[in-house]
Amino acid sequence: MNTKDFRKLIRVYFAPKLHEVGFMGTDHHFVKTTDNHFIYTLVIQTDKSGGSCVMEMGVHLDFLPNSIGEFKSLNEITTYDCEFRKRLDKKSISLAEIIARSKKIEDFGAPLDLRLVLLIARTHKFLGNDRDAKEYAQWGLINIGKATGLIKDFEAIGRGSL
Fold this sequence. Notes:
Layout: H1 3-20, E1 29-33, E2 38-46, E3 53-61, H2 95-99, H3 103-108, H4 113-127, H5 130-142, H6 151-159
Antiparallel strand pairs: 1-2, 2-3
Helix pairs in contact: 4-5, 5-6
């Protein structure tokens, strides 16, 4: 089956089911938002040779930029903009678990250590937990290594701004 025919099947059969549970989209990119800042995304990628597909799911927070610092509108955001690209359990990650490189981080489908720390620091900042935000930002600056592009983000959180 070619991609065009496969996407038609998605539009006719799968998209209506996703719409029933609050997703928007019609072809192969779908997005759902919630009142508690979560954005859920789904993309279905067909194999150009036919016969198979891949479904990738993403979770992002509407107050965070994507990995290259851009804020995307709901009409533009895709799974590729999401920090998390696997199903998430209702678990939390501590700074100690990041430092210890806990297996739990992999289970989250979380980004690399510094990106994860930045995401958590930004989330604490958004929630008004300035002390926690600064603690994560300080760890990020101490462990920045070659990721110098993130220095300005960690410093902004440390100063109390975003």
